[in-house]
Amino acid sequence: MTDKLLLTFNAGSSTVKIGIFALDGEGPKRVGKAVVDFASRPLMLHLKEGPTQFELPLRAESGDDLADLMDEVFSELDKHFDLRAVTAAGHRIVHGGDIFDGPVELDAEALEKIRTLTELAPLHQPQALRLIRAVRHLRPQLFQTGSFDTTFHATQPDLVRRFAIPRAWHDRGVKRYGFHGLSYEYVAGALARQEPNIAHGKVVIAHLGSGASLCATENGLSRDTSMGFSTLDGIPMATRPGWLDPGVLLHFLGPLGKPLEEVEDMLYHQSGLLGVSGLSGDTRELIEDDSRQAKEAIDLFTLRIAGEVCRLAATLGGLDALVFTAGIGENQPKIRKRVAERLRWLGVELDDDTNARNAVKISTSASRIAVYVIPTDEEQMIVEECLAILESMEQISAL
Questions:
Q1: Mean pLDDT score of the chain, rounded to an integer?
Q2: In this UniProt entry, which residues are annotated as the site Transition state stabilizer (predicted)?
Q3: How many separate domains does the chain show?
Q4: Is the pLDDT of residue 359 over 80?
Q5: Alpha carbon distance 99, 266 (integer Å)
Q6: Judgement on whether residues 216 and 310 belong to the same structural domain of the protein
Q7: 207 is in an annotated binding site
Q8: Is 149 a catalytic residue?
Q9: 92 marked as binding residue
Q10: Is 336 annotated as a binding residue?
Q11: Residues 80-127: pLDDT tens digits?
């Protein structure tokens, strides 16, 4: 298997992350990483091969059909990796609804079921489907799998997933699903390998990036999470508001007469840290800005994170550990420190030196709650799930 490659595709609203993995006797090993940035003009392909990085402008445009774009991306990747060796591709798909409880082969039946869930994730689901179809157009015989961001949270009790709305709507799918599941699954597994006794306990994982949420786990299983029906829910994010009184939406759509499209754009692209600060949705910029607006955005962000830690601890009935992950959680000590300061009453105490170094364990020996920094790797989860499906099919065919 040393000559085989697997690709992973992680489609976001403004980027596509591509992982290139080689297969050997010890499992999949990442050999390259690429990111297509849809926000740049012209489009850019950021490619990393070992220690070397490349910035490659792309001629193709993004649109409803990504075949031309992916054709160009594949051509560029083929200059660095032998894409003839690619045997399968795995995709991150945001929403699996109540239909999918694990990864699947992306055959025609699965694609149709994924399409029916588009109304539950109107920005992310179509992008993933366009990408799957583009890859299929280029490589019709390539085996493709889908890994879902929602399935990790299927272990949550019905009570946690329920809104206080008429039961008929819950039964029709209007419920809390939760997201960032691939990240939480990876981090829960990493914690179990490093600190098995802690991982079996009551843990809150904070996935803090441009999209952000928190998850309560017990014995490595999801018990509650901050995101609910959509990726707008929970704590404030770079450009999304997090929790919002439904009356605010009624006010915009009713008395103010705002069009639905305008409200949707505001909620997804103009709110959150960007909306509060009026400056940026990037915490790295805001934390270094002395303006009142920037400080208020950071204060609101850390206040809501700390508050959600406490809510999730109530679901768990206690708290043994807090884990920070994703871009902000892994790399920004100042944000972690401000969250920890708001949780001091709970017994959280950070060690300034280990926190500054982004060490794995950043709490002091006196802290009643253990605090960790564990890098996430969604692409690793995607490739492992893709490989598991491939291996199961080989085993079945061998029977």
A1: 92
A2: 180, 240
A3: 2
A4: yes
A5: 30
A6: yes
A7: yes
A8: yes
A9: yes
A10: no
A11: 898 899 999 999 999 999 999 899 999 999 999 999 998 888 878 888
Contacts of 350 (CB under 8 A, 6+ apart): 336, 337, 340, 362, 363, 364, 367, 371
Does one domain contain both 228 and 353? yes
Tokens 């960032």 identify what position? 180
CA quadruple 103, 329, 126, 64: dihedral, nearest 10? -130
Spatial distance between the Cα atoms of 107 and 131, rounded to a whole number of angstroms: 14
Same domain, 27 and 136: yes
- The predicted structure's pLDDT at residue 13: 64
Asked if residue 190 is part of any domain, the answer here is no
Residue type, 319: L
Helix (H) or strand (E) holding 95: none
Q: Is 153 helix (H, G, I), strand (E, B) or coil?
A: helix
In which region does residue 244 sit, left (phi positive, over 0), alpha (psi from -120 to 50) or beta (all else)? Answer: beta
> Is there a domain that residue 180 lies in?
no
**Residue 258 annotated as binding site:** no
H or E segment and range at residue 144: strand 143-148
User: Which own/partner contact pairs does 159-168 have at CB distance under 8 Å and 24+ positions apart?
Assistant: 160/223, 160/224, 160/315, 163/228, 163/229
* pLDDT over 90 (residue 49): no
Residue of 65, 149, 299, 351 marked catalytic? 149
- CATH code for the domain of 80: 3.30.420.40
Chain segment 205-257, per-residue pLDDT in tens: 999 999 999 999 999 999 999 999 999 999 999 999 999 999 999 999 999 99
pLDDT digits (tens, 9 = 90+) for 126-165: 889 989 999 999 899 999 999 999 999 999 999 999 999 9
The answer on whether 396 is annotated among ligand-binding residues is no
Contacting residues for 269 by C-beta, under 8 A, at least 6 apart: 239
